[in-house]
């Protein structure tokens, strides 16, 4: 079967794109190598999703996934190995076979850079978080530590200063203060785009070059969510990208 669109990645961006495309009457296959929802499923309580006064990452993503399936999107747990463009379609090779489509939406997200082995051992059983806006409220009135030296670390510190009793700021490999109850890691992220190097244009850090229209350098290939070049990476911007990319796909398919 040749799908109208294959979406790679079932995070907020990818699943939102699937919902909008199904509502537009398009055939859609969503491929996910790990589990739907991405990293947000590990967040205990989300308080920055409009309309939800408090919801877990697992519940939020399960609701979106259920909506996507109810609308008729096909979904498979498969890891994408490569994408090849032929005259009028794309061939997506996975660890379980091949699929064909008229267009592609890449929504593979990013992975956080991990603590050094030394700091991870130093952290012990303390909570390690990669998102202050997601988890910061859980540590109101308690001491926390932020690891990192760039703009992301500065943003995390500023956000946490209004919540925590004390915010320690340390760099990679510095010892973690003993009284900190949580460690917020802000040492950068890695986009999941290695398999795309010969398909679309990437920036120096591996992010897919695309502006707010979510169009890549390759005709028929679109991008949504954290794996594209952008200033703000939040749940709501991922969902927004999904909606924008889906409309771009509809326009492309005609």
Question: Would you kindly provide a brief summary of this structure?
Answer:
With 254 residues, the chain is α/β, with parallel strands linked by helices. It is 26% helix and 25% strand. The protein folds into 2 domains: 2-111 and 189-253, FAD/NAD(P)-binding domain (3-Layer(bba) Sandwich), CATH 3.50.50; 114-185, FAD/NAD(P)-binding domain (3-Layer(bba) Sandwich), CATH 3.50.50.60.
Please explain how this structure is put together:
The chain is an alpha/beta fold and 254 residues long. The protein has two domains: 2-111 and 189-253, FAD/NAD(P)-binding domain (3-Layer(bba) Sandwich), CATH 3.50.50.60; 114-185, FAD/NAD(P)-binding domain (3-Layer(bba) Sandwich), CATH 3.50.50. It is built from six helices and 13 strands. Strand 4 (80-85) and strand 5 form a beta hairpin. Helix 1 (12-23) packs parallel to helix 2. The protein is elongated, with a radius of gyration of 19 Å. The two termini are 19 Å apart.
Topology:
Blueprint: E1 2-8, H1 12-23, E2 28-32, H2 57-70, E3 74-77, E4 80-85, E5 90-94, E6 97-106, E7 110-112, H3 117-123, E8 127-129, H4 132-135, E9 143-147, H5 151-160, E10 166-170, E11 182-185, E12 189-191, E13 221-223, H6 235-253
Parallel strand pairs: 1-2, 1-6, 2-3, 6-13, 8-11, 9-10, 9-11
Antiparallel strand pairs: 4-5, 5-6, 7-12
Helix pairs in contact: 1-2, 1-6
């Amino acid at each position: 079967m040749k799908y109208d669109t294959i979406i790679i990645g079932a995070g907020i961006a990818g699943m939102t794109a699937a919902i909008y495309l199904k509502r537009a009457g398009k055939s859609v296959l969503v491929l996910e190598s790990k589990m739907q929802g991405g990293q947000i499923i590990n967040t205990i309580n989300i308080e920055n999703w409009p309309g939800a006064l408090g919801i877990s990452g697992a519940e939020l993503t399960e609701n979106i996934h259920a909506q996507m399936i109810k609308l008729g999107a096909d979904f498979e747990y498969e890891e994408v190995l490569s994408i090849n463009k032929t005259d009028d379609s794309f061939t997506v090779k996975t660890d379980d076979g091949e699929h064909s489509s008229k267009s592609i939406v890449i929504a593979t997200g990013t992975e956080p850079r991990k603590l050094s082995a030394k700091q991870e051992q130093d952290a012990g059983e303390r909570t390690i978080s990669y998102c202050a806006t997601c988890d910061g409220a859980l540590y109101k009135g308690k001491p926390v530590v932020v690891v990192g030296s760039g703009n992301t670390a500065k943003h995390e510190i500023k956000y946490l200063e209004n919540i925590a009793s004390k915010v320690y700021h340390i760099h990679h490999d510095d010892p973690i203060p003993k009284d900190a109850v949580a460690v917020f890691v802000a040492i950068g992220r890695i986009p999941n785009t290695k398999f795309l190097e010969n398909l679309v244009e990437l920036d120096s850090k591996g992010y897919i070059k695309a502006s707010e229209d979510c169009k890549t350098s390759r005709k028929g290939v679109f991008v949504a969510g954290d794996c594209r070049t952008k200033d703000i990476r939040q749940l709501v911007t991922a969902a927004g990208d999904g909606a924008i990319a889906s409309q771009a796909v509809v326009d492309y398919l005609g």
